[in-house]
Amino acid sequence: MTDTAFESQTVPAQAASLPGSVADYIALLKPRVMSLVVFSGLAGLVVAPGTLHPVLAVVALLCIAVGAGAAGAINMWYDRDIDAVMERTRGRPIPQGKVNPDEALAFGVVLSVASVLLMGLAVNWVAAAILGVANAFYVFVYTMWLKRRTPQNIVIGGAAGAFPPMIGWAAVTGDVSIGPVLLFCLIFFWTPPHFWALALFRSGDYSRAGVPMLPVVAGEAATKRQMLVYTLLLLPIAIAPHWFGVGGIAYLVGATVLSLLFILCAVRVMLDKTHRAAKQMFAYSILYLFLLLAILIGEKLVA
Questions:
Q1: Which of 20, 40, 63, 90 has the fewest Cβ atoms within 10 angstroms?
Q2: 3-state SS of 8-54?
Q3: Integer Cα distance of 238 and 258 in angstroms
Q4: What residue intervals traverse the membrane (predicted)?
Q5: How far apart are CA 109 and CA 102, in angstroms?
Q6: What is the pLDDT of residues 36-86, one digit of tens each?
Q7: Cα 199 vs. chain centroid, distance in angstroms?
Q8: CA neighbours within 13 Å on the CB side: how many for 56?
Q9: How far apart, in whole angstroms, are the C-alpha atoms of residue 81 and residue 274?
């Protein structure tokens, strides 16, 4: 942690004492990140064999959303020093003095525990256990252990964001099989090129905050090569659900085309001397995952 980070963490006493608004607490939940988490959880829930009562399905998705948001709130509490340094995050509620750090921590812990308990009591304890593991992994493994220590932080830590399809699947079936594992792998291997694209054009932010993201530690050229490697690995992983009966022909075609375009994005990033291609790849990466999951959901709904 840098001296600048400590200095930037200080907020006016008056601001820090003001009660946070509803909007401030919603911001703690990282709603934009939560939306993709919930959608991936929905994909696991829909494509899983069997049925779940609509009310319980809504409860399961609510628990996934609240659990992810709670982990995000704890992440903001722990990272409040570097958030104050980084341009991308300095407007968050804690660095702005809109929410007291202790209140943010309590908010996150209570919601995390509540989401796991509700999932267990209302749906099943297998789904609840996976939700609990996902939250703990994001907070303790990624946020507190890996993020500030290794350039592989997002590679290993990305597993936290890959759990929602498994949670949705387990909510329906009460177990975990090859289907949700494949969806886990899809998101796991998607995460590094997605975040490294962001890190390329935000490397100054991470450098000032002392976060060892790959572009900061290994340089842009090495990062771009790693991004290409991961997009190449992602192609067979993305189409694997079709061969195991999770996705149909539409998914196979869509996953192939979308993955080839992802590889093309990575090639363009390697050839680009500016950060324009990296910004485009970051935007496409979100669309890529959304469309893959949407095709899976659509196939199941029209079957």
A1: 90
A2: HHCCCHHHHHCCCCHHHHHHHCCHHHHHHHHHHHHHHHHHCCCCCCH
A3: 9
A4: 33-52, 58-78, 99-119, 125-146, 153-172, 178-201, 227-244, 250-269, 281-298
A5: 11
A6: 999 999 999 999 999 999 999 999 999 999 999 999 999 999 999 999 999
A7: 15
A8: 18
A9: 29
Q: In this predicted model, what pLDDT tens digit does every residue of 93-104 receive, in sequence order? A: 999 999 999 999
Distance CA 42, CA 37 (A): 9
Q: What percent of the chain has pLDDT over 70?
A: 94
Alpha carbon of 199 to those of 20, 152, 234: distances in Å? 30, 13, 19
Q: How many CA atoms lie within 13 A of 242 on its CB side?
A: 17
Res 2 pLDDT > 80: no
In this structure, what is the dihedral angle of CA atoms 82, 86, 89, 90, given to the nearest 10 degrees?
A: 90
- Residue entry with tokens 């992983």: 237
Write the secondary structure of the chain as one string of H (helix), E (strand) and C (coil).
CCHHHHHHHCCCHHHHHCCCCHHHHHHHCCHHHHHHHHHHHHHHHHHCCCCCCHHHHHHHHHHHHHHHHHHHHHHHHHCHHHHCCCCCCCCCCCCCCCCCHHHHHHHHHHHHHHHHHHHHHHCCHHHHHHHHHHHHHHHHHHHHHHCCCCCCHHHHHHHHHHCHHHHHHHHHHCCCCHHHHHHHHHHHHHHHHHHHHHHHHCHHHHHHHCCCCHHHHCCHHHHHHHHHHHHHHHHHHHHHHHHCCCCCHHHHHHHHHHHHHHHHHHHHHHHCCCCHHHHHHHHHHHHHHHHHHHHHHHHHHHC
Which residue's entry shows tokens 């996902």? Answer: 134
Q: What is the pLDDT of residues 184-207, one digit of tens each?
A: 999 999 999 999 999 999 999 899
124 touches 116 (CB < 8 A)? no
Token pair recorded at residue 217: 């530690």
